[in-house]
Amino acid sequence: MSFFDKIFGGKEDSSEKNPIWKYIESDDDLKKTIENSFVHKVAIFKHSTSCFISKTVLRNFEKEIENLDQKPELYFLDLLAHRSISNKIAEDLSVRHESPQLLVIENGKVINSASHQHISAEQIVS
């Protein structure tokens, strides 16, 4: 691992190793995520795997989540691999696309959203 990889993160993304995530990789996965929001609050983290800022925000968010007593249901969307799903989220849930972005969904509606440095676990638990 190079010096820069140690500081900024290498090609591996920490979300690939972290079991806190359920992955959205299809329209059906998104549909199930929205359906789950009628049972309990869910959150979708939209992440650009090639963006340093997004990687940093993701890492910080994961650390916050690990420190919570009660773990929320978290979904992960790789924007580079699944941009069409991100577009569907923006259209179906009436939110502007941003990256990185956290969307908190309850009863099929976005009840909280944030991007960049404003993303925190507090948005889910409050």
List the keywords.
126 residues; alpha/beta; Glutaredoxin; 5 helices; 5 strands; Bacillithiol system protein YtxJ; BrxC
Structure characterization notes:
- The chain is globular and about 30 Å long.
- The longest helix has 15 residues, at 52-66.
- The protein contains five helices and five strands, in the order αβαβαβαββα.
- Strands 1-3-2-4-5 form a five-stranded mixed β-sheet, sandwiched between helices.
- The protein has one domain: Glutaredoxin.
- It has helices at 3-8, 27-36, 52-66, 83-93, 122-125, and strands at residues 21-23, 42-47, 73-78, 101-106, 109-115.
- By secondary structure, the protein is an alpha/beta fold.
Q: Short summary of the structure?
A:
The protein has 126 residues and is of the alpha/beta class.
The number of helical segments is 5
- How much is the average pLDDT? 89
Question: Fraction of residues in helices?
Answer: 25-40%
Tell me the number of structural domains: 1
CATH class: Alpha Beta
Secondary structure: number of strands: 5
Which value, in Å, is the CA radius of gyration? 14 Å
CATH topology type: Glutaredoxin
Give the assembly state of these chains: single chain
InterPro entries: BrxC (IPR022551)
Protein name: Bacillithiol system protein YtxJ
